[in-house]
Each structure stands twice: as C-alpha cells, then as structure tokens.
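User: Before I run my own analysis I want an independent prediction to cross-check against. Here's the chain; please return only the structure tokens and, at the end, one sentence I can use as a sanity check.
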Amino acid sequence: MGHEGSATLLAFHSPGGSVDSRYVKAIFRPLRDDYHIVVFDLRGCGRSEVMGSPSFEQLTADAEMLRMKLKLGQVIVAGSSGAGYLALEYALRYPESIRGLILWSTAPSHTGLVTLRKNASAAGLALDWGLFERYWSGHCVDNADLRRAIIEFNRLNAVLSPNYHPGRHREKRFWRFEMHNYAMQEQNDHWSVESKLREIRAPTLVMHGDQDWIIPVDEGRKLGAGIRGSETHIFKGSGHWLHAENPHEFESFVREFLGSIGDSRDHFLPAN
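Assistant: Structure tokens:
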C-alpha cells in the first residue's frame, strides 16, 4: 500500500499460527500516503500456504525472495516483539538489502515465560500456568488449546496494559497451532543475536515502553547499546503495545527516522 515511488518499508508480523499481516498493516496505515508499505503473511500464517519448516532462516529467505521479486531495492525493515526477532535476523543475513531498521518492543534474545510469570505474579493474577507453559514453549495440543491460551493472554493483557485497546485488530484469525508451536520452539531454542549486534551498520530506530511486561525495557536498551549509531526512545508509561498505547508519538518518531535516512547509503557506518 502507499506510493511505490517513495521509500519502501517492509514490515514483518510475529511468527506463529494465530497472527498475520493485517495487524502490521493497520499499524503502518497512517504512513501510506507518504511511503510504500509492504506487508505479507509469513509461510503457514494467514493466507499463506503451509510449506516446509517455518524456521527463522526460511522466513527471512522468503522475505528476501519477495523483495527481489517485487524489485523493491533496499528496504527499511520493521518489526516488534517476535517480528523484531525476524527483522534482526533479516538485517544480519541480508545487510546489503536494507536501508534502515525499525525495532520496537523487542529484544536481542528471547525472554519467554520467565518475564511474563514474574509480572503476572507481581500483579496478583491467578492464571492457568499449565496452559501458558504449553503456549510459550510451543506445545499447544490443538487449535482449541491455542485459542484458550490467547483468551487467557488477553485477560492478562487487560490488566497489565490497560491503555491498550485491540479494537480493530480483532479480525477473524487463522488458527494453526502447528505453526505456533514451531515458531515458539524456534524462539525458545536459545535464540540470540546479542553477540552480533555490532555487525548491523544500517541506521536503526529502537523504541520500547518502560512498562513492557513481556519484554523488559532493559532489552530495548541492549539493542540501542549494541547497534552502533542507533537512535533509542523509551516511552514512559507504555507497555508492550506502545504503537497502540501512544500512536501519535510512535508515528512521529517513525516519520522523523524515515525522513532522516533519505535515499542515500551515506548513513551506513563503516564495517570497522
């Protein structure tokens, strides 16, 4: 969507069997009059077919193939939470394909259930931890199990992120518990790019809420400190969904960043 002659933003959605590109399309819709926004359903998600193993390596290779097929040139890659993991992987695997990187509410390594359990306990919430263990470890037994986990997750979200109102994001979901399980197991298998952050040379915008109850704000600070020359903004009072909790501030920082990197590669840092 948007103007094809302008800078292209390629936005990932989080991997898993209950999300698809409609979510990120809604996030970046306000930019469509000024930028070319490209979103797509990861393999096994949304309207995409279930083909092969949706590993991070394969999913980023799919994105690169799409970029080449559409003749997009260099792109600004964006992602939050689990989609941020993919954006980081893409930036490291295909450094010549990116012009910039936008990361929010994400981390250089997977924090998983530990953070969620800690914050839920601090809030005094009684949850079905067996269900959450299956959800977070990638062992949902069927689509009904995945749906129950999402309902429980949203109940927790209503307490810990009171300023987040899903509203328009409540479209019909495509439920594929096998894809969810694979994605979560991929993340939980000691996933980390923390030691490789210095390899990223593209201009990078990092945003994080200081009240994020899923991925702690210190993880965002790690990204900012690890990626040389990156620009980091901490949103006071915002949780994991800062794009929805503070949409105007989020859009302002994104627009400012996109305007700052322009069309040249002069902003890239030297390799050494």
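Sanity check: The first strand starts at residue 8 and ends at 11.
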